[in-house]
Amino acid sequence: MSRKYHLSLSSNPMQRTMLTCSVCKKQFTSHANHRDHLNIHNNSRPFICEVCGKQFKNSGSKSNHMRLHDPEKKFVCQICLKSFRWTSSLKAHLDSHAHAILKKEIARHRKRQPAKPICVQTAQSNACVNNH
Predict the structure, then answer these.
(1) 36: number of Cβ within 10 Å
(2) Distance between CA 69 and CA 49 in Å, rounded?
(3) Is residue 97 part of a domain?
(4) Most buried of 6, 45, 91, 113, CB within 10 angstroms?
(5) 68-83 tens-digit pLDDT
């Protein structure tokens, strides 16, 4: 492999070969990322879903779309075992559990500390109030 290729993979940022977008000047160290980025600036959608034919500008968008066609829901709630296709859906669902748990905790604490009745009597001193 060429020295130029190895430099592009270097962990030292000063030694990496940078690929620059000719339109927006954004820089990339990966040829694949640079190539995918260029599709943003034109109407090219070279990544096609084999199931429904929908077209995408990058492979990541296509991969995300492919989950719609996959019957398996890989992200499972450990509380109620409901499953989801996306981690974002699972996170939103977990918030509902957190809200329910919080409501139960508030109710439990309210039961523990019953409200004291309000007394309208007046006292002659603080000592009398404390004794009351």
Answers:
(1) 19
(2) 10
(3) yes
(4) 45
(5) 998 889 999 998 999 9
